[in-house]
């Protein structure tokens, strides 16, 4: 069974993020920090707004944390946990992904 390809890991720099659309129509983001790729639904748990104000800009200036453009909440890229801001302690909704031998980022379990 082939898995649904979301992107190729070459589309992500060493530290970057990329907006994508899931098969169910929801917006999501792929994030690569310290070589680890994670994915989350593009919705802040504080007010349900999308995290970005500009295309593919999801990380704070230091490139270490995911940031909500609306109110500055900061999230760990490994777990999606909010570590600063009005939704501290809450989490972004994770999207399971895997990377195949060719570097394709795919939905896990598809």
Automatic annotation (TrEMBL):
Keyword terms: 2Fe-2S, Iron, Iron-sulfur, Metal-binding
PROSITE patterns referenced in this protein's UniProt entry, alphabetically: RIESKE
Protein name per the record: Rieske (2Fe-2S) protein
Gene Ontology terms, MF aspect: 2 iron, 2 sulfur cluster binding; metal ion binding
Pfam families: Rieske (PF00355)
Taxonomic lineage of the native organism: Bacteria, Pseudomonadati, Pseudomonadota, Gammaproteobacteria, Oceanospirillales
Gene3D superfamilies to which the protein is assigned, alphabetical: Rieske [2Fe-2S] iron-sulphur domain
Cross-referenced InterPro entries: Rieske_2Fe-2S, Rieske_2Fe-2S_sf
Residue stretches making up the Rieske domain: 4-88
């Amino acid at each position: 069974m082939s898995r649904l390809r979301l992107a190729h890991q070459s589309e992500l720099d060493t530290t970057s993020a990329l907006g994508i659309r899931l098969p169910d129509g929801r917006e999501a983001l792929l994030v690569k920090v310290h070589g680890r790729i994670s994915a989350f639904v593009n919705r802040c748990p504080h007010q349900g707004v999308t995290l970005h104000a500009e295309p593919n800009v999801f990380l704070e200036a230091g490139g270490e944390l995911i940031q909500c453009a609306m109110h500055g909440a900061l999230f760990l890229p490994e777990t999606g946990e909010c570590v600063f801001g009005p939704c501290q302690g809450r989490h972004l909704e994770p999207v399971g992904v895997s990377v195949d031998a060719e570097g394709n980022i795919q939905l896990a379990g598809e």
